[in-house]
Structure to design on (744 residues):
């Protein structure tokens, strides 16, 4: 799969920002999804109570993941499912390939699954000559373009209908008009044949239900139902943290997930699949495999800063809310997952702080992601923890280290600080025009390339303070006696208890 | 090859059980518990929806009205039919309106009672047959209309619930482009939780292999956010409420 151009977030973002269609499409789509969520949550009401319940259920499950995984596996096996465990991505791909080889499969048809992107399952199948076809319309388009998804919910957000018509025309062997109905109609016919031919259906899982060993899939097109109905063998890839304890808990997830993702009350299809077809059933898979994937997830367990990351239900609401994602789009992020969740999840799963060090900096820490999150994951705090770890492990540039040392020295002494301000006031004279510094060189370039820095005023705040203090004191009306004595008694009380505030 | 060699599956099973101990043991370790994981059932004080929600209830008529509103808003068609006697005529009319040439239905007495074979003898009619799975599936893939009787409906989300069995193929509500779902009014619930509660009670024993919630016609917005109906599943979806 072709990687986005550029090795740093900045380079990739610069490429993205030059693509006018992409910039507008990302803005339009995220706005639409965000407004959809806003309307749906307002209509449903009591959203904060639902969010809190969602957080409680997810946090509880993760805290007892060992118990619930064993329970899930026992029940799935009792229904005739073959369960497998993949500590790493390559193990998951190996197991899936082994099953496909044994089946002498010629083709696999897939529904949307983020974990399969992590595992690079298409490449693994293609490597042994098995055709692997994405059946979600958006995923099918980007598979033809040989690109990774740029949004969790709408993977082909960055492609326009002309580009899509070109891709599908090549596949059709005739020119298709750039009309949504014609393009979708072609995909329906083409993929219908693929569903009927495929030896194996491969799905992801939004949730696994521990009490019955069932998997649950949310979707709008019906392709995941196809994949789990028509082929004789089904393989499901599931992240090990996808569990919820009971069907009752699914009501909460079904309330939070579609509303947060697209603003729907429920996706068109929500399917609970419990084992392969029963003996008398006429459809559904005859053989069912579930591959449970760790791939870095267990590294978050027991880590107080990052365990909550496993609560994520993959709705994409944080992408739509994020001012950074909304500008630069999904391909500016380095891994499978983009936006705020990707910025934290990618380095957390890979545990290579050094390699992904720049992604944690691509955030203004505004907290919009936390506000949007239906299970209240504090992503903005986690970005700070990531930055912190980067510094602790020494992955900072020599320039940054030197600057911080200088800053420390300066701030430790008021005399030095005063002198530095004086020096700045004199030194800036060469650069200031109309009260601003506009020059784009030197250590300030990162700032001045896009903004002007206001010049240091001729008198600093500290120099003005004695005068300001006198003015404020003179303009305030005297405090009423009752209030004054109350304040004094509070202060006295604090002194007695020894508290600082 | 459809069925795997038992020795292949047995070998994978053995590997899986060995791996399970390490895999879950590792999780238990990370969570600060030793051994192969916690074997005691944890207290789950936050099970299901918030308490206030479980008291939410709509009247019989409100449920029907709410369901119909939601189903229409999702792009589906819905009609209320006074009784089973009238239903046959309504289904016949819908099939004719959409120019359907063929039908497939769940193998249930209520649907046989529609007597479509007599009403529309010029159409090809088929009944789902779990005994003849490949033929049933192939037929469903090239049939115009699928007719199902739902297990439940949920007013608040505008959803139908269909489950799989020998008589009720999953394909019938999925492969044909025209879906006609029959909803007896007494099966209409207010909340999703009412259906979930029942599924939870059957967990571990009597659950059907497939439980499908359907909330309108198949849709996608993957091409420039332009809504497309009927991408893989049925593009025309009728919910006929009986009673």
């Amino acid at each position: 799969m072709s990687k986005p151009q550029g090795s740093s977030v900045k380079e990739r973002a610069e490429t993205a920002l030059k693509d006018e269609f992409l910039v507008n499409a990302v803005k339009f789509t995220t706005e639409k999804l965000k407004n959809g969520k806003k309307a749906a949550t307002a209509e449903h009401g009591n959203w904060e109570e639902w969010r809190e319940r969602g957080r409680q259920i997810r946090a509880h499950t993760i805290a007892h993941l060992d118990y619930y995984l064993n329970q899930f596996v026992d029940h799935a096996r009792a229904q005739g499912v073959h369960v497998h465990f993949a500590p790493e991505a390559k193990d998951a791909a190996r197991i899936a390939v082994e099953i496909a080889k044994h089946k002498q499969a010629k083709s696999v048809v897939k529904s949307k699954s983020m974990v399969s992107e992590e595992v690079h399952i298409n490449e693994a199948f293609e490597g042994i000559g098995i055709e692997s076809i994405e059946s979600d319309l958006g995923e099918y388009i980007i598979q033809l373009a040989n690109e990774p998804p740029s949004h969790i919910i709408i993977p082909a957000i960055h492609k326009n209908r002309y580009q899509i018509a070109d891709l599908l025309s090549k596949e059709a062997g005739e020119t298709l008009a750039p009309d949504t109905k014609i393009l979708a109609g072609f995909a329906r016919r083409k993929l219908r044949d693929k569903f009927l031919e495929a030896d194996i259906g491969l799905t992801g899982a939004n949730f696994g239900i521990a009490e019955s060993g069932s998997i649950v899939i949310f979707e709008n097109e019906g392709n995941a139902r196809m994949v789990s109905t028509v082929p004789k063998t089904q393989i499901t890839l599931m992240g090990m943290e996808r569990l919820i304890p009971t069907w009752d808990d699914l009501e909460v997830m079904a309330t939070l997930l579609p509303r947060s993702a697209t603003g729907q009350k429920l996706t068109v299809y929500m399917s609970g699949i419990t084992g392969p077809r029963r003996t008398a059933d006429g459809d559904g898979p005859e053989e069912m495999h579930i591959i449970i994937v760790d791939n870095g997830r267990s590294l978050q367990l027991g880590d107080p800063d990052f365990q909550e990351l496993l609560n994520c239900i993959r709705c994409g609401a944080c992408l739509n809310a994020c001012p950074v994602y909304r500008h630069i789009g999904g391909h500016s992020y380095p891994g499978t997952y983009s936006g705020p969740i990707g910025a934290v999840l990618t380095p957390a799963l890979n545990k290579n702080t050094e390699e992904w060090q720049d992604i944690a900096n691509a955030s203004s820490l505004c907290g919009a992601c936390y506000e949007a999150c239906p299970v209240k994951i504090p992503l903005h705090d986690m970005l700070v923890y990531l930055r912190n770890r980067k510094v602790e492990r020494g992955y900072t540039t020599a320039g940054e280290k030197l600057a911080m040392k200088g800053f420390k020295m300066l701030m430790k002494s008021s005399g030095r600080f005063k002198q530095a301000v004086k020096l700045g006031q004199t030194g800036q004279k060469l650069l200031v025009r109309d009260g601003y510094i506009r020059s784009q060189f030197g250590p300030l370039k990162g700032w001045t390339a896009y903004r002007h820095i206001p010049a240091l005023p001729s008198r600093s705040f500290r120099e003005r303070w004695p005068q300001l203090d006198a003015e404020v004191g003179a303009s305030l009306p005297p405090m009423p006696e009752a209030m004054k004595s109350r304040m004094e008694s509070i202060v006295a009380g604090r002194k007695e208890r020894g508290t600082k505030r | 090859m459809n069925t795997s060699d038992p020795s292949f599956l047995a070998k994978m099973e053995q590997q899986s059980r060995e791996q399970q101990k390490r895999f879950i043991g590792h999780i238990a370790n990370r969570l600060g518990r030793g051994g192969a994981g916690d074997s005691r059932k944890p207290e789950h004080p936050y099970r299901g929806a918030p308490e206030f929600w479980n008291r939410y209830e709509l009247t019989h008529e409100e449920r029907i009205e709410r369901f119909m509103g939601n189903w229409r808003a999702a792009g589906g068609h819905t009609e209320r039919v006074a009784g089973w006697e009238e239903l046959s005529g309504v289904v016949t009319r819908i099939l004719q309106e959409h120019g359907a040439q063929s039908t497939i239905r769940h193998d249930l007495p209520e649907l046989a009672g529609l007597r479509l074979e007599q009403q529309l003898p010029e159409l090809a009619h088929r009944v789902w047959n779990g005994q003849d799975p490949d033929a049933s599936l192939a037929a469903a893939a090239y049939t115009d209309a699928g007719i199902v009787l739902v297990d439940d409906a949920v007013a608040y989300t505008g959803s139908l619930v269909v489950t799989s069995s020998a008589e009720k193929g999953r394909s019938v509500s999925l492969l044909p482009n025209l879906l006609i779902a029959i909803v007896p009014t007494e099966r209409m619930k207010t909340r999703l939780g009412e259906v979930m509660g029942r599924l939870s009670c059957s967990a571990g024993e009597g659950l059907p292999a497939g439980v499908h919630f359907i909330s309108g016609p198949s849709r996608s917005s993957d091409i420039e956010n332009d809504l497309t109906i009927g991408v893989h599943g049925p593009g025309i979806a009728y919910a006929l409420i009986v009673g």
Residues 60-242 of chain B form a domain with the Rossmann fold fold (CATH 3.40.50.10420). Chain B has a mean pLDDT of 94. The radius of gyration of chain B is 22 Å.
